[in-house]
Structures are given as structure tokens and as C-alpha cells.
Design a protein that fits this description.
Mean pLDDT: 93
Strand content: 15-25%
Structural class: alpha/beta
CATH architecture of the largest domain: 2-Layer Sandwich
CATH superfamily of the largest domain: Dihydrodipicolinate Reductase, domain 2
Shape: globular
Low-confidence stretches: none
């Protein structure tokens, strides 16, 4: 069988996780030869060939696969492009880089006939991309919806299951390595929207830039919002959602949802992810697994690496289909909005208001508004630290 000799960039949580997994399974076909990091003199707790010079990897004829596992999106982009241009298959876990450059990198894969695999970038240990590529490679798919960020889900689980306050839950997530010291990407929805963009390429063959998708997180959530969810017998979950409308267009969003008990993702807890795939004739199918942590994600990276043993490549069947779909924000959603002043409420172009409450300390409305209107005022909503959540009818 083909031998894979890896040059790895990065030795953080995921890189160390991949290293541990390979040490545990003692693969005869896969080994890490060189690891490129910024500070090779730093003690990493393992005996390995560390370097801070990328050329030590790219100029080594024995290395036949690059594993790009660093945080910096710009540097990751440089590494991936160089690997593809040198006809070296590359596995990446950098969802921010992929979300911004996937169109270009798909074209580069075609030109160089070299594989870029990134299943680990979307949902940790859940093989959602490969399933969308191989099993759902037809026009029967209706929607993909789920919890794509384990860090925010861990925080929400502690709040709703253990009555932990938000700052304490966030600190615990950071202490356990589920959230970064700067958790903005996780709790404000950016991590989820990057993953949603990648998933949508494979689910519907449509690339949508991050700035064209309404994205809102949980950082402004307070005790009143949690109380509201309890009163409605629901839980707040940060949900990424892409759906094909009857018009043939797709809608996309990342925002909190008030989830009822009868939904699959209601019971997805802690650092786990849950993805619901819905089709025209097979209704709903549910995928569940760990979405955060070095070993689960490292295992997903290894799955991509071993796929390269068999010269596997994504075929982008939907992207190359004759049935092209387009993205739209002209779609109405029912939301719960908690606000402070009349000027806050005036920002929102509600088409209909179903419920309204006004007291000295808290005000909220439940109403219908379009994604286009939400996107238009997205930055102002963030600036004012308002909280909103999709409030589904069921």
C-alpha cells in the first residue's frame, strides 16, 4: 500500500491531537516526519522533528502530504496554495481560510489535479462533508441545519442544564480547552458561518461569501432571555442553517434559535455537534458527534489523510451540476428580540408583530422580519448588544 509521509504545520490542540492518535494506532502507512512551528525551541512534551522553516517541508522529496493545522487564516492560505502548486496533497482544518478562498482553491485543485481535503474543518468528528459528497449527491436535498460549534454549545448546555451564569460557563469552556482565550469566533457565530459556507458548497453547489450571510451569536444573551426560553419550554441553541426554497433559491443564516423539545438538536449537549439533513423523500437524518477537542478533530484529520492513501478527491458534484442554485436573503423569519429603547426597536422593519412586552427593565417583541433587513442592520445590532433569536413556529 502507498506510504504517506506528512509534513505538518502547527502543533496546537488539533496538531497535538493528530500526533497522539497516530502514536496510539501505530499506523504502518502513515507517519509524521517534520512539524513546522514558530518556536521550535519550546518544549512540546514530545520527541519529534520540529522546525520553523517551511522549506524543510516543501523541499523534502520524501514528504508527500501536507497537514495544515494552524490558526492564522492568511498563513494557512499561503501554505495550502503552495502545496497545491507543488502538486502535494494537502489536508486543512482552517475553516476561516476555506470560507474566504474556497472558490479559488477548488479551481486550483482542478488545474493541478491535486487533492485538498478538509472534512475536519466543518464539524469535528462528524464526516458531514464526505457524506454530502457521496450519499447526498443529488437534487433531493432540502436543508442542512445544526449545531456546528462545540464551544458555544458547551456554554449553553451549562447555562440551561446547570443554571450556570454566562461568564462562569465561558470560563469553564476556556479552562477545558473548548473555547479560545478570545472566544469571539465561537460565541458570535463566525466559526459556525465559516463551516456553513463549506457545507453549502457540497450540499447545494453554491458559494456564498461570509458578509452576505446574517450571522449573530450569543455574547449579548442575558438572564432575561434565558428566563424567556424557560417560560416557552425551549432552549437556546446557536444554529447554522441552509435551506432550499420552493423557488429553487437557498437561504443561509447563523443565529440563536429557541428550540422545542421535539427537535433532534434540543438534546445535543456540551461540546457535541448535531447536524440534521433533510431531503424531499427521506425526510430527516441526524448526525451527531464531538465538535471540539484535539483528539476528535485530530481523528477527523487522520480520516482525510488516510483517504489520500486511495487518492481520494472531492468531486464537487453539485458545483459542477447543470442545476445551479442562487442565494437570497429575501425570506422572512419569526424572531424574538430583546431590546432596551424605542430607538433600538426602530432599527427593525418588522412586517408583523405577534407578541410584545414592555417593562422598566426589559422589553421584547416576537415578530416577522426578512433576513435581508437583519443583514442590513447587523453591525448596529452588534454595537447595541441587542439579543435576538429565531422563534420557530414548532
Amino acid at each position: 500500500m502507498k506510504q504517506i509521509t506528512i509534513g505538518m504545520f502547527g502543533f496546537g490542540n488539533v496538531g497535538h491531537g493528530l500526533y497522539d492518535v497516530l502514536e496510539k494506532i501505530q499506523s504502518k502507512n502513515v507517519r509524521i516526519k517534520t512539524i513546522c512551528i514558530k518556536h521550535p525551541e519550546k518544549d512540546r512534551g514530545v520527541v519529534a522533528n520540529f522546525t520553523n522553516n517551511p522549506d524543510d517541508i516543501f523541499n523534502d522529496p520524501e514528504i508527500n502530504l501536507i497537514a495544515e493545522l494552524i490558526d492564522n487564516a492568511d498563513e494557512a492560505y499561503t501554505i495550502v496554495k503552495r502545496a497545491l502548486n507543488q502538486h502535494i496533497p494537502v489536508v486543512s482544518g482552517n475553516k476561516k481560510m476555506l470560507a474566504h478562498h474556497l472558490n479559488e482553491l477548488i479551481e486550483l485543485q482542478k488545474q493541478t489535479n491535486t487533492a485538498l481535503l478538509y472534512d475536519a474543518s466543518a464539524c469535528g468528528s462528524i464526516p458531514v462533508i464526505r457524506n454530502l459528497e457521496e450519499y447526498y449527491d443529488n437534487d433531493l436535498l432540502v436543508s442542512v441545519k445544526g449545531i456546528l460549534n462545540g464551544s458555544s454549545n458547551f456554554i449553553l448546555s451549562k447555562i440551561f442544564n446547570e443554571s450556570m451564569d454566562y461568564p462562569k460557563a465561558l470560563k469553564l469552556a476556556q479552562d477545558l480547552g473548548f473555547a479560545e482565550s478570545n472566544p469571539t469566533l465561537d460565541i458570535d457565530g463566525y466559526d459556525s458561518v465559516f463551516k456553513l459556507i463549506i457545507i453549502t458548497i457540497h450540499a447545494f453547489g453554491c458559494y456564498v461569501a461570509p458578509e452576505d450571510i446574517f450571522t449573530y451569536g450569543i455574547s449579548s444573551m442575558n438572564d432575561y432571555d434565558i428566563k424567556f426560553a424557560h417560560e416557552k419550554e425551549r432552549r437556546i441553541k446557536l444554529v447554522a442553517h441552509v435551506e432550499k426554497l420552493e423557488s429553487g433559491e437557498i437561504i443561509m443564516s447563523v443565529m440563536p434559535h429557541l428550540i422545542s423539545r421535539n427537535k433532534y438538536i434540543y438534546s445535543v449537549e456540551d461540546e457535541f455537534n448535531g447536524v440534521v439533513i433533510k431531503g424531499q423523500f427521506y425526510y430527516k437524518q441526524f448526525m451527531f458527534g464531538r465538535g471540539a477537542g484535539g483528539h476528535p478533530t485530530g481523528s477527523a484529520v487522520l480520516s482525510d489523510i488516510t483517504a489520500c492513501l486511495y487518492d481520494y478527491k472531492y468531486e464537487y458534484k453539485k458545483l459542477n451540476s447543470d442545476h445551479k442554485v442562487k442565494h437570497t436573503n429575501n425570506h422572512d423569519v419569526r424572531i424574538y428580540l430583546r431590546y432596551s429603547t424605542d430607538s433600538d426597536l426602530a432599527l427593525f422593519s418588522f412586517k408583523e408583530i405577534y407578541e410584545r412586552y414592555d417593562s422598566r427593565d426589559n422589553k421584547y417583541v416576537v415578530g416577522l422580519i426578512s433576513l435581508a433587513d437583519l443583514l442590513r442592520i447587523n453591525e448596529e445590532i452588534r454595537h447595541r448588544k441587542l439579543f435576538l433569536s429565531v422563534f420557530p413556529y414548532d
